Amino acid sequence: xxxxxxxxxKIDVDTRYLKEQSAPDHGQYAFAYTxxxxxxxxxxxxxxNRHWIITDADNEVQEVRGAGVVGEQPLIKPxxxxxxxxxxxxxxxxxxxxxxYEMITEDGRPFIAPIAPFTLVCPGALH
Length: 127
Prior knowledge:
By secondary structure, the protein is mainly beta.
């Protein structure tokens, strides 16, 4: 893995609670997350796979692995960004997500771009 290439990938996350898709009485809390992946490096990179670790307030963990994101394996050119929105369901009003993207440079060097932990929280769940 090339740490300098991974350091050139900046990942920002914006989350929101989806009240209309949630059923708190049945232990279902829906969240959307919008990810922006910026390539601040000098060569194009392709996102190949995703790995998510989703932890609810009861410390139960779900792991999600798969090819690409939202059905795509985007190529992100230098100075450009890729943005997508997806979602998750958890059984508690508060949780966290973190993970990584497996990526590859245009010259064939694979690397991992880490995604820092972020919080999923219903309005009013934390004081």
